[in-house]
Specification:
Elements: H1 4-40, H2 48-72, E1 99-100, H3 106-109, H4 117-130, H5 136-139, H6 147-153, E2 157-159, E3 162-163
Length: 182
Amino acid sequence: MPTPAERQALLFLAAVAVVGGGVRAVGTRTVARDVARAEQGPAPSMDLATRALDAQIAAVDSARRREHETQSTPRSRSSRTPKRPTLSRGRVPAPVLSIDVNNASAAELERLPRVGPALAARIVAWREQHGPFESLESLRHVRGIGPATARLLAPLVTFSGRHSPSQSEAPASLTPRAPSAS
């Protein structure tokens, strides 16, 4: 047999369950009524906050519809997706005009494309250990600078005041000379 305190607790829990079920039933009717009103459009007497909330909900719904429409459209037959330029986190590239590799600090070298903090530190360390760079070819001795990076850096770097020759330019000693008519 339950004690009087236990009977009182059971009675209380039963009352809470009955009231909760009633509130839930009334609440669903209220929600259904509110949804029907929202589909008809905002009432002119609604306050500003309610209208703003309805506008936000409509914007989210339209965005979801657009997202669903774009997913259902057929994609191109190309298996490759176009590459978008990416930036490392929080790093906005500064415009690079020309950087003297033999005089630049590691921070200045980082302004070059594909040169991060680690590669800039290796360039400075190599320069301190072996002396100044003479050309783009000597810069390629640094681990991390291959042919592609060298081609990218060619128009952007100088070596102690001299501008590095680009791919189209060749040193005067390598250009074929026309036979002179003597």
